[in-house]
Write a structure and sequence with these properties.
six-stranded mixed sheet, about 180 residues
Length: about 180
């Protein structure tokens, strides 16, 4: 990616059910909405009902704004993501990507391509890409996923990877 790494951060998150995912995400999304950041969803599965049920049980200041996020967005195609970015260009952006490992990989490829194409417009913006993995879904080593991300998002917010996985050492590529 040609864009300067300083303004793009990739986070990963692990969850055991859609309810766990929504419970973990809502406080973080509420904070980002307070900070006037634009949340763009790229979801394989519709989680709108879970969000609606949970948000009614919480005392959330930004209830309406959170409910207006497209929680049923199942489109990971170029046009859909590109239009979302164009509508968010004035703000810092948080991408919320959820699905199986292949879905997340394809969505990230599209997001990266669009970011590169719009570099002049968004180079001064902070962009976070949060990839949410269902624990029972992914095959292989969790280290592979951790290596591709800068931080972890969990119920207590953004954390350094080694705060959660104390023995983790990122594979540094030499050269």
């Amino acid at each position: 990616m040609n864009i300067q790494k300083k303004n793009i951060m990739k986070l990963c998150s692990f969850y055991v059910s859609d309810w766990h995912l929504v419970t973990m995400l809502l406080p973080y999304i509420n904070k980002k909405v307070n900070e006037k950041e634009k949340v763009i969803t790229v979801l394989e599965n519709d989680i709108r009902n879970n969000v609606e049920v949970l948000i009614k049980k919480l005392n959330v200041k930004n209830e309406e704004k959170i409910l207006n996020i497209n929680w049923s967005n199942k489109n990971n195609n170029y046009e859909s993501i590109n239009n979302s970015i164009k509508n968010a260009i004035e703000n810092n952006i948080v991408f919320l990507v959820n699905g199986n490992k292949e879905y997340i990989k394809e969505a990230n490829n599209i997001i990266n391509k669009i970011i590169e194409e719009n570099i002049e417009k968004i180079e001064q913006k902070n962009i976070k890409i949060i990839n949410c993995y269902e624990i029972v879904e992914f095959n292989g080593s969790i280290v592979e996923i951790l290596d591709e991300h800068d931080k972890i998002l969990n119920t207590s917010g953004e954390k350094e990877i080694n705060e959660i996985f104390e023995d983790y050492k990122k594979n540094e590529k030499i050269g």
